UniProtKB/TrEMBL annotation:
Organism encoding this protein: Lichenibacterium ramalinae
Protein name per UniProt: Winged helix-turn-helix transcriptional regulator
Cellular component GO terms, alphabetical: cytosol
Keywords: Activator, DNA-binding, Transcription, Transcription regulation
Pfam family, one: AsnC_trans_reg
HTH asnC-type domain ranges (all copies): 1-62
């Protein structure tokens, strides 16, 4: 990737709806060359998609929680079963296997603490292999949906 590719990525992270012609103008490239770069970056998997950023509170999802999850066994089949179940759980926004004192860090969104209590009891602890959880409710989101630190100009 050259500096023009990095600048494309930087611009798209800030404005995914920019037209190819406006993007080309900002890059000082032709629309054809810019379109070719976009197609290559998409084909190569650097650009993985586009989407709208939504306000969770306006959608009734005001509570963000992070949950440490420990499994009862750390075998590949338990990991696979847990991962499959997590992918099917809409409240879970992100799930990361981590090194350290627990197995997974889960990021989830629900309406409020009462909804979280139901989610914890009915869904989270019922996921395959879950032995223990530790929850951290977010009091304030200081930075959210930050762009990746590409340096394109």
């Amino acid at each position: 990737m050259d500096s023009s590719d990095l600048k494309i990525l930087d611009i798209l992270q800030a404005d995914g709806r920019i037209t190819t012609s406006d993007l080309a103008e900002r890059l000082r490239l032709s629309p054809t060359a810019t379109g070719e770069r976009l197609r290559r970056l998409t084909r190569d998997g650097v650009i993985t998609g586009y989407g709208a950023r939504l306000d969770p509170a306006r959608l009734g999802l005001g509570l963000l929680v992070f949950v440490e999850v420990s499994l009862d066994k750390t075998t590949s089949d338990v990991f696979a079963q847990f991962a499959r179940a997590v992918r099917l759980t809409p409240e879970i926004l992100e799930c990361h296997m981590v090194a350290g004192g627990f197995d997974y860090l889960v990021k989830a969104r629900v309406a409020d603490m009462a909804a979280y209590r139901g989610f914890l009891g009915d869904v989270l602890v019922a996921l395959p292999g879950v032995k223990e959880t530790r929850t951290y409710a977010v009091m304030e989101e200081v930075k959210r949906d930050g762009p990746l630190p590409v340096r394109g100009g």
